[in-house]
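Example A, followed by Example B.
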Amino acid sequence: MLRSRLFLLAPLLIFLALAYLIPFLGVMRWSVTLPEPGLGQYKTALTDPLVLSVIWRTVRICALVTVLAVAMAYIVTLLWVRGGPVMRLFVELCILIPFWISVLTRAFGWLALLSNRGIINTWGQDLGLLAEPLTLVRNEFGVVLGMVHFLIPFAVFPLASGMRAVDERVLLAARGMGASRARVFWQVFVPMTKTGIFGALLLVFVFALGFFVTPALLGGGRSVLVAELIWLRIFQSPDWGLGAAISVIMMVAIGLLLMLTMKYAKGPGR
């Protein structure tokens, strides 16, 4: 039985090794060999003020995006799981249609909507609501807005799994004991969906850490995140060693984060 399972998994393991492991080992080699052998690039990555500021900005923006995306996704998922047939169909379309649109198209869509000559500023000035165009892109606001919009559908599925696992009898028992709808929701329903919330937070945060296109277009070079910094170091400046070192540090940090969160999710003693 074990051999048959390994045989079935072999194509996937070979693909993962070719597509991820071997390239990552090459990046690790660059980090300790370019421009000269040693750990100097790691020291630079962990002490350079520019790199540290970009890492801090990345963590801060990703944390904010994660909270906003999961909070909005919770409302969407609640309507999807517990709404009527028409509402479910409408929400399903709202969840699935974004997957058919590329991240590049979405980012240009936000530029068309939010730029100084975009729809919002043009209509606002034509209607006399705005004296000057609002700065809605090429800053952190635009980056956060674009990332939240992209990541909401990804948070829906773990939340839906958690909500569908809720035992309706518990909710009915709480209502039968005199609890209000709001109290049942906040003190019974939400805690019973914490597994889905936790999975959504983890998925969205890890996904956000690797964002490149949306921050590059909507940030306009003024809100550089770590993925864009790595691209700049490798493709725009002859500093492949530092770019590789930052990549390895981020991979290790994400791996440790996943290990800690999985350990927390399993609980003590498991």
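Example B, a separate protein, is given below in the same form.
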Amino acid sequence: MTSPSPLDFGDRGVSRGWSRPGRGDASLLVCGVLLVAILIHSGFFSPGAWRDFGEKFHQNFILDGRYRMLLDGLKATLSMTLFATLIGLVLGLVISVIRVAYRGGARIGLLNALANLYITVLRGTPVMVQLLIWNFSIFATARDVNTLHIAILAFGLNSGAYVAEIFRGGIEAVDPGQMEAGRSLGLSYRVTMLRIVLPQAFRNVVPMLFNEFITLLKETSVAGYIGIDDLTRAGQNIQALTLEHSQPLVMVALIYLAMVLVLTELVRRLEKWLHRSRRS
């Protein structure tokens, strides 16, 4: 398998097209203009349309407290994302250290081969297929296991494969002289890695880890395929109750968009802070 170069963080570790100054704003403006044009053409701004909108909104979200279905779904989505991220971080860090240590001459060929196999399989298959395999094959006979926990495991293992590449790129981006300096001071490989290399590598990859968190947040929308009432499934459940096909899913999309925009802004500010701290 071809070895990625340093700072090659895989296909989920970098932002795609939004990082250049002005490009994101221009794209948002074009999307906004198109959305307004579509709404005008469909008669969305007519008085009758607004009356229908209000009645449907009450039926979809207010009547019988159906908004609570969205809140419960949001809670499940955030739980899956947070715990899967923690699993991915721990697993990815361990695997990246194994791969870097092997390239540094450590005699851990079997561990390195298993790490490569894990990354190849998990990154080479769709996360939804992995989720179905975990639920309907591996845990098919374990009826006492909560499907939410199965989803967290599946998403965490999938994320770990991507995080491993992010960490590996961050570690290999650290000047090799840092490791040599630590060893020349009499520190062991493990101590040098923990106290000198990894802190610098972590600083390099923090923005990419946030991007991975955003990607994982959106990927959990397939959890409904194994019966979890996540945010997307909550919108579908409201659809089934009210037989109204637009507002529930549009509301779900707006909630996802709001979360992603907030996280994206956090990443942007974090990148600026890291850039300033490196220059100071």
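On Example B: The CA atoms of residues 265 and 271 lie 10 Å apart.
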